[in-house]
Design a protein that fits this description.
- It is a single chain.
- By secondary structure, the chain is α+β, with helices and mostly antiparallel strands.
- It has two domains: about 5-295, no CATH class; about 325-415, Alpha-Beta Plaits (2-Layer Sandwich), CATH 3.30.70.100.
- Helices cover about 65% and strands about 5% of the residues.
- The chain has helices at about 5-30, 35-40, 45-55, 60-75, 80-85, 95-105, 105-130, 150-180, 185-190, 195-205, 220-225, 230-245, 245-255, 260-280, 300-330, 350-360, 385-395; strands at about 340-345, 365-370, 375-380, 400, 410-415.
- Helix 3 runs parallel beside helix 5 (about 80-85) and helix 11 packs antiparallel against helix 12.
- The radius of gyration is 24 Å and the shape is elongated.
- It starts with a helix and ends with a strand.
- About 45% of the residues are buried.
Length: about 425
Amino acid sequence: MGLLAAMLSVLLELAPFLLLGMVVAGVLHVALPDRFVHRQLRGRFGVVKAVLLGVPLPLCSCGVIPTALGLRRDGASRGATVGFLISTPQTGVDSILVSASFLGWPFAIFKVGAAALTGVVGGFLADATRGGRDPDAAPEPAPAESTRRGLRSVVAHALEILRSIWHWVVVGILASALITTFVPDSVFQAVAGRGPVLPVLLALVVSLPLYVCATASVPIAAALVAGGFPAGAALVFLMAGPATNVSTIGAVRQFLGARALAAYLFAIIAGSVGLGVAFDFLIEGPPVIVGHTHDGGSWWRWVSAAVLLALVGWFAADEARRLLGRLRIARAGRDERIIEIGVEGMTCSGCASKLESALRAEQGVRAVSVSLEARTAVVRGTASEADLRTAIRRVGFKPDAVQPGSDRRGTATRSA
């Protein structure tokens, strides 16, 4: 299989579940009562509740990312988010039934317990890295401020989640395709009969960066067992594979921090290896039924892949426009006027993109750069500051009060 064919295969497998995760994130954001996530998914019991919520959900590795980040933004603690990220993609009602059909009910039930255990341990460790406190969590919202209603809110929240992680999705698809293309089957065959430890470690090394769906990967695990791998190696593959990939690792690092990522990886690595060895020691190898596979050519997979590619292309083009705007402002001549205005009310990258589009449409504007982190809009051109402030209000944001500043050529007129 060539690299492009492998990338297409991963895309077809990933896209439906990633879009499903976006929808679930949007629905949960709108449907859950105000302050519910903030109150319930915090502290040690919050970790357990997050794991119990995640275990039955049919979300795969990349599908769980937007859902978990949505819970985090709604107020879930760092530990609850990590517990949800670890436990959810390993299981799901569909995955449990398929695992039982291929590898037997003892294997399927053991896998559910392993997912819950590693999720709870990972969540506890993530909370412990901050001494039980979570200063970075979203503040508890006031009831009067809630505006989460309707289909438009579901779509907006879902799109914002994907916008924040699309870079890692692309990297994950490429990494998975590279491993699929350039790691030959002979590597697996060579270690199949070399004791229980080496196959388990090989399954771990391969599965950590790879995109693996908990349901669709069961036939692969069954084939490994049929080829001579111990059942514990298949368990490691079905635990570490769905729970991690390059996209998930990058998202955890970006949104939860390095310490949470360390807790996340430790729980998965130590938990999967330890429980894989324990399964081989405690339970006789499962029966294997090879032959059932998912139809990668289903029309809905192609439609999902096309939708995902279109969204990624949209976000990439939007980011390129924003980068171009920053470069144009940085290259402004000494005789050109630059105005910087503080902006209140921006909460996401979509807000920044919306504001940039509105300011770019104003007469006399040559370049625009909006910073979500600094909460500022920087404009190069001849447009008046009053017109720019009116444009900011028109799209629903609030320009900061005017402060004394200078209007010098090649420098910024600051209003923040």
